[in-house]
Amino acid sequence: MQTHLVRVHSSAEGLPRKEQLAWQIAEVAADPVPVSDEVTAMVINRVIDNAAVATASLSRDPVVAARAQALAHPPSTGGRGATVFGLGADVRVSPEWAAWANGTAVRELDFHDTFLAAEYSHPGDNIPPILAVAQHLGCGGAEVVRGIATGYEIQVDLVKAISLHKHKIDHVAHLGPSAAAGIGTLLGLDTEVIYQAIGQALHTTTATRQSRKGEISTWKASAPALAGKLAVEAVDRAMRGQTSPSPIYEGEDGVIAWLLDGPEEAYEVVLPSAGEAKRAILDTYTKEHSAEYQAQALIDLARRMRRTDPRVSDPAQVVSIVIHTSHHTHHVIGSGSGDPEKYDPSASRETLDHSIPYIFAVALQDGRWHHVDSYAPGRAARPDTHLLWCKITTREDAEWTRRYHSIDPDEKAFGGRVVVTFTDGSTLTDEIAVADAHPLGARPFGREQYVAKFRSLADGVLAEAEIERFLALAQQLPELDAHGVAELTVTAPPGVLDAVPAPSGLF
Questions:
Q1: Domains contained in the chain, number
Q2: pLDDT digit string (tens) for 410-440?
Q3: Which residue from 31, 272, 442, 494 has the highest number of Cβ atoms inside 10 Å of its Cβ?
Q4: Looking at the structure, do residues 32 and 124 belong to the same domain, yes or no?
Q5: What is the pLDDT of residues 1-30, one digit of tens each?
Q6: Where is this region: Disordered (predicted)?
Q7: Residue 452 contacts by C-beta under 8 Å, 6 or more apart in sequence?
Q8: Are 149 and 28 contained in the same domain?
C-alpha cells in the first residue's frame, strides 16, 4: 500500500496533476491487477445481498417512485440499456436511471453492507451503477467483478482517511468518486478519463447530512442512488472529453478547504500500490437486521439479555436502561442526537431505524428483529413499548469510542455496554463488541447465510423458480457473458408490482 499526503494547495503552487488524490485514485482504477478468488467470492456474496434487500423493498413507496421515473427513460442510442429490479430482463432503461431505481431499492431498508471508520458508508451502493453500465454496454461477468472490486477499494480507502460527517457532509460524497472509479475499471478506461470522471462525480455529490437528521425522510434511500446516477453521468461526460474542477480535493476553493477540515489540515490516504490487488471488500460486513449498523450488535445483545432476565422487557419492572457506547452511536442514533423524533411513536420508518432507544426496546420485548413487523405503525404505537422506550438512553464512553476508531480489526467494536436498573434495586449488565453476523461475531456470515438471507427476503415476493434462477446465475458471475450479466436481475410476479400504484410526476 502507498500513503498519499493530501492537503490544500493555493493556485499559485500549481499542484501537478499526478500528485492530486483524484489522479492517484484513477491510477488505482486503471491498474489491470487480477482479482483474487477470495475477493471474487465476496463480490458474489454482495451481489446476492443487494438483490435480497432490493427484492424485499419492491413495493415500498420510494422504490415504486424511482422505478416509475426510470421507466420514463428508455435506453439511449449508445447501448442496450439496463434492467430494473422487479421488472423482466427484457425491460430496459437508460443506465443512469437504472442506477437510480436500483440504488434506491438496495438502500431503502438499510439492510445491506457497511464499512465504518473515519466516515460511514454502505459500499454495496457501488454495485447498482457499475452493473447498470455493464448491462448497457454488454460487459461480461469478469469485468463486473473487477469494477466492483475497485468501487469497494476506493470507498473503503476514502472512508478510512477522510471524515465527512463531522463537517455535516453526507457520506455519499465518497460514493460518487468510488462508483466513477469502479465504472472506469469496468470499461478499461485510461487514467485521464477516470480522473476527470472522479472530479465531476465528487463535485456533484457533496450535500449536507440533514438527510439523516431529525425527521428522516424518504430521501435517505435516494441520496446514494443519486450519487450512483451522477457517477454514471460523470463517466459519460469524461468519455466525451469533458473536464472537471481541478484539483477537486486540494484546490484552495476545493472540497477540503471549504467543506472539510480547511486549508491548514492534511489527510493520509492509503491506496494500493501499482500491481497490488484490491482487497478492501474483505474489510466490509453485511447486516443480519434491517437497521442502522450500530444497532446490529445491540439488537443481538437485547435478545441475549431478554433470555438472561425476561424482566428487561417489562416497563413496570424497569427504572432505566443506559447504553454506554461510542460517540457515533450516541450522537447519531442515540439520545445524544438531541432529536425528539427518536422517541416519537408516530415517527417515520427512516427515523425509527436511526433510533437505538426504539430498536433496543422492541428487540427486548420481541426477542427478534423483522424488516417489516418491527417498524409497523401499530408496533411503534404500543403503549408498553413507548414506556420502555422512553426509559432507554445512551451515553458516550471513551473506551467504546476508541475501539470504534481502532485500526486493529480484532479490537474494532460497534457495540456497547448496557446497564438495566430494575424497580427492586437490582441491575443487569452485559456488553457486546460486534454483531453476531460480523466476521468476528458469534455467527459470521458466509455464502450459506447470504443465500439464506436472499431466500428469506424473496419469500412471498418472487416465485420459487425465479429465486433459484437468480441464485444460480449470481454464483456464476465471473464466468457470465454479456447475456448472463443482462439477466442478473429479479423479475417479480405482476401482482407484486401492481400492489402499489406508480405515482405521477413530470416524466
A1: 2
A2: 899 999 999 999 999 999 999 999 999 999 9
A3: 272
A4: yes
A5: 999 999 999 999 989 999 999 999 999 999
A6: 329-348
A7: none
A8: yes
